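task queued by scheduler; priority normal; single chain, no ligands, no partner chains; default sampling; output format set to structure tokens
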Amino acid sequence: MRKLIFALVVVLLAAPAWADVVIDLKNLGNGVVQIGYNASSETELVRAFALDIVATDGNIIDINDYAVGDNNGGYGIFPGSFDDNITVNTTTGMVDSWVGNPNPYTPVAPAGDPDALGEIPGPAITIEMGSLYDDAAPPKIGVLCTITVETTCTQVCVTGNAIRGNVVLEDVSEATLDPNCISFDCFPSSFSTYLTWVSLGKPACWCKPPDGSGYQCDGDADGITSPAPAKYRIFSGDLALLVANWKKKAADATLDACADIDHKASPAPAKYQVFSGDLSIVVANWKKKDTALAGDCGVRAE
């Protein structure tokens, strides 16, 4: 029976069908993007995915964390990679090995296939992933894979590949698949202060190295230490920057957002972007050196 279903997966990936499935993208850091899916609104399970992945301003350099093979609760059937890359038993017709030979067994469709975007490394790829199972069906919410992009990359977008069927359900029903994108900022979009960071012009000083010092949220407004031998991370230069921006508001074009240590405005109606909350942090960390501070600004959740 699985041999017949195996053939059906290949047909479905080439058939025009749509699925009401949400593609979830998550930035895991260090250029790694997790590509997940959510089909909880569907009564049917998803049988196969055909997706185009496009990176902006950089290349996709790796793909990992995907299921391989059948009956494992995942999408480990890659029609574009069959060729001679899996070992099929000539007597039973079953797959003896999913280990790629001579080439890797991978979800990435060969660049020469119709409407396939490219191969790794490159700015765009097409992935084909199907399920084949007896009892270990994939869940309705899960992870397909992760990709790694170059550090120059500013955005990753995932859309359906229409010629391969986009997303196919068990009953081959049709729905829509909306494209999804994730942008790479040095300040995480998951932070509660992210919108403030954006509204202030995305100041790099709020971020982790190499964009910022990693100490700005501890009071390092000027991004440097005092001269040797003291080498205080929080000292007179930071206080001077706070004084220069004291009681300035977000709309003030002269505001230096690096002086906004607590990353929020004072309560209404004043709504000063640099005020007593920022000064309190500087005072609490006055004359502290790098060794006395975590240095995880831009990483520490806000």
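post-processing summary
- Confidence is low (pLDDT under 50) at residues 1-19.
- The two ends are 52 Å apart (CA to CA).
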